[in-house]
Write a structure and sequence with these properties.
The protein is mainly α. Helices cover about 80% and strands about 0% of the residues. Helix 1 runs antiparallel to helix 2. The longest helix is centred in the last third of the chain and has 37 residues, at about 85-120. Essential subunit of the Sec protein translocation channel SecYEG. Clamps together the 2 halves of SecY. May contact the channel plug during translocation.
Length: about 130
């Protein structure tokens, strides 16, 4: 059994950036509700500006940089995928629907057969 690597924030600057992001996030929510009487433009403007600052602070930390790298790697992998053509997608969809119909009929027939065997033959109940 291997021990997976656990990433932790090790530098003081990273801790400060993440703490600043959390403080900005809380400030955004507080400002949104505190500026309710100032009008919706001020209220939403403060929310958007503070949220953008919180996201910016997070993305400059090591955790944010690794999140960006993960996203870039994911995009590279998605580009490698060979996607089916429209015709292939329709064919596979029809196959799935046909399989579902066949399975539904099979399960219905199995249910009715067991119902007949149990209630009519074994128990002798007539409906």
């Amino acid at each position: 059994m291997s021990n997976p690597q656990v990433e932790t924030v090790t530098t003081g600057a990273d801790k400060a950036k993440l703490a600043g992001a959390v403080v900005l996030l809380v400030a955004a929510l507080v400002a949104f509700y505190a500026l309710g009487k100032q009008g919706p433009w001020v209220q939403w403007g403060a929310l958007i500006v503070l949220l953008a600052a919180a996201v910016g602070a997070f993305l400059t930390s090591e955790s944010g940089k690794s999140l960006i790298a993960y996203g870039q790697d994911s995009v590279k992998e998605v580009r490698k995928v060979v996607w089916p053509t429209g015709k292939e997608a329709r064919q596979m969809t029809l196959y799935v629907f046909a399989f579902v119909v066949v399975m539904a009929l099979f399960l219905w027939l199995t249910d009715k057969t067991l119902e007949w065997v149990l209630y009519d033959l074994i128990l002798g109940w007539k409906r």
